[in-house]
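Bug report (template v2)

What were you trying to do?
Predict the complex of my protein with magnesium ion.

What happened?
Run completed; filing so the output is reviewed.

Input:
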Amino acid sequence: MGKRVVVIGSQWGDEGKGKITDYLAEKAEVVVRSQGGNNAGHTIKFNNRKFALHLIPSGIFNPNIINIMANGMVIDPKALLSELDMLKKEGINDYKLYISNRAHLVMPYHIALDELYEEIKQDSAVGTTKKGIGPAYMDKVARIGIRVSDLLNEESFKKSLELSLNFANSILKSYNKLIFNFNEIFTQYKSIGNILRPYITDTSVLLNKLIDENKNILFEGAQGSMLCLDHGTYPYVTSSSPTAASVPLNSGINPFSITDVVGVTKAYTTRVGAGVFPTEFEDDISKKIREVGNEYGTTTKRPRRIGWLDMVVLKHVKRINGLNHLAMTLLDVLTGIEHLKICVSYNLDGKEIDYIPADYNEYQRCKPNYITLPGWKEDITHTTNINDLPENCKLYLNTIEKILMTKVTILSVGPDRTQTVTLKNIF
Ligand code: IMP
Ligand code: MG
């Protein structure tokens, strides 16, 4: 029987999903991206080479894997072209890629609107990646979006571009921003459409066929559950739902078809962009974590904010995703830290709570309650067997497993494919 495994980020993104997906992809036959766009940045390292992917699924380096960009994504055609160019330059020519005809497009004016909305929000700016993600989803919801299928038909493209561009230009004009020219965009994107044409198809039909054929399918999450539009730290979230629940909707499969959900979590926590982050701290230890863990954004190069592991967050994320596996990354980064803290609950105005308050101000008032565990000094970057880990390292893992009641199935002790400890085979 084929399995349909969802890999999601259990924190605020950048948990190392790229590495875990790439690792699991060895046994997968299909890799699917189903939400978000090039706000994502997935770093993959193998054979001493390093690749950053933003739109294209992580299975692209394996010529046998079918890669699908599904309907829930918002795709910037220009960004996609430059990613395809990057692959070409790197000598990666043998791949299988399919793009949903129902996915929406990110247009250049969406990027201008993303910048404008951030500017208008001033102190309340979200700290978006400025890739036009939010405004593209706004057009989708307002039913003025442009879909990939429109690119293939001149009449449809003309009509949908007119509608979407007029709205955008009227907003940009009212804030004295540069407006965009219809003809320029029309001509340019029509030709991009022709380049992309061979990849475009009904990916829901394709996926369902692959499910019927019992293929092992991997759904590669982008961002993290705490950035979910519904269940994250609204309004400091992204504009899609990076949860397992969104996968069926965003890829056109039935909800019963998911067999496994892998939550990827760092051994600590990071966040880029603005927004509440209870376990955040700034001292020599956080600086060390940032440097050793190379905690700088893949997409925006911004230094990431650093915090201790937060079990309230992980419990929340387990609740909404139904995690049955935990994949822990960057455990090696904690090596050499004398005392490791884990947040087990919050203190909200004198009361202990273990859930995430919906009210943003309430969440901001939450102070973490920590337990402290002893750290380890031994190098673990070459460990391939769980039994070889230092006792304190095992204690750290066991404590997390006990609190979350979920087993660590995959452990990453370094960026390379080979630096992975498998505790149970998922496929
Ligand atoms: P947007 O998705 O560009 O609209 O940004 C909204 C928020 O999500 C900002 O805080 C971003 O930093 C964050 N974000 C978006 N994509 C990612 C990602 O792939 N990793 C980490 N944070 C992200
Ligand atoms: Mg990332």
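What did the reviewer find?
The chain has a mean pLDDT of 96. DSSP finds twelve helices and 20 strands in the chain.
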